[in-house]
Amino acid sequence: MRRRLQKAALELYRERGYDRTTAAEIAARAGVTERTFFRHFPDKREVLFDGEAALHAALSTAIAEAPAALGPMEVLLWTFRSIERMLEANRPFTEPAREVIACTPALQERELAKAASTTAAVAAALQRRGVEANLATLAAGTGMAVFGHAARAWIEDPSLSLGTHLERAFGALHGLSATGAPTPR
Amino acid sequence: MRRRLQKAALELYRERGYDRTTAAEIAARAGVTERTFFRHFPDKREVLFDGEAALHAALSTAIAEAPAALGPMEVLLWTFRSIERMLEANRPFTEPAREVIACTPALQERELAKAASTTAAVAAALQRRGVEANLATLAAGTGMAVFGHAARAWIEDPSLSLGTHLERAFGALHGLSATGAPTPR
DNA sequence: TCGGATATGTCAGTGACTGACAACAGGAGT
DNA sequence: ACTCCTGTTGTCAGTCACTGACATATCCGA
């Protein structure tokens, strides 16, 4: 049922746009009532952002299993590369969803919220690994920013793998912060 | 009028919580009609996020006026320090607002959207300074993440100045990425 | 005094979302 | 077969955010 509703919603959002489709229409296409729609998803936006729990789980376990010798930032690069297959597998679904999100402010807001939630999950996983709390949130925040940058580059230029874009982005960060830091204490 | 509505909204959000206050109540306390409220603010959330244009302007001019010798990340640190006074001046208003935001998911979403918008403005200002586009968005993203981290630390521990927290955060970033980058190309 | 711009009030309407209750299906135990 | 239980769905009424259209008031320059 969830799948049916997600499929119907994505179709309608693409056909008429998010604002022009009502929850009742989505439910109708899925063969149920509006009320049923809101029993499966808390609101019209959430229907495009499923699998958050799975993503958090994948990230958390990857962070936990990363080689012990790596520093926080290295752990994140290693982790992001390790979920590359998962992201590529989901691309057929996320690709059309992103097109809709890209032209709908309300959906962009929700996407940012999801990213923030993921950042918090990453920070928590780093802490579980022994990284000090403040350092963990800082690393998670910047790491997610770099990841987002690499992901956008990957969307625009799929000829290179996500891993390549990740290497480039983390390399660029290295170059940036090497010149941008005050004298170390 | 805007001020009156903002004041009324903040009061009511603090008294009853965001969800428990209707737009009509805010308008009534300000002595106007619900319709008038929506003429001044596009929605119930926006009333707590004013001054975005002013912030973007301040950041943009600061970035433009930063010493020419600085690298992108140094420009950002310099810029954030330069608006410290502005942020401290606004603190009497933003402080209670943040309390409400902190316990209201809907408002947190909007705050993230505002941060994203600011990040885009920063990236644009960096480009105007001659920084290459990709590098500018990467620097803006990570720089804003670091700034957000410093700002949160400042909220929790106001005994140190925002500038001190900024120095620490950028210093920590330097330490993080120094060990976390792949071998430079 | 007139005309026009701007701010507000009024009203009706759409649509997201919620709570309460009924109806229905399948499964487990008797 | 009967019953109980649990989970899913339909139905209905209601609240509230937000919008468009139109009327009204206020004020300011010509």
Task: Please explain how this structure is put together.
- 2 copies of one chain form a homodimer.
- Chain A has 185 residues and is mainly α.
- Chain A is 76% helix and 0% strand.
- The first copy, chain A, has 9 helices and no strands.
- Chain A has helices at 2-16, 23-30, 34-40, 52-65, 72-82, 84-102, 105-128, 133-156, 162-180.
- In chain A, helix 8 packs across helix 9 (162-180).
- Chain A is elongated and about 55 Å long.
- At the A-B interface, helix 5, helix 7, helix 8 and helix 9 of A face helix 5, helix 7, helix 8 and helix 9 of B.
- The structure holds a DNA duplex (30 and 30 nucleotides).
Structure summarized in a few sentences:
2 copies of one chain form a homodimer. Helices cover 76% and strands 0% of the residues of chain A.
Give me some keywords for this one:
mainly alpha; elongated; DNA-binding; 185 residues; homodimer; 0% strand; disordered C terminus; 9 helices
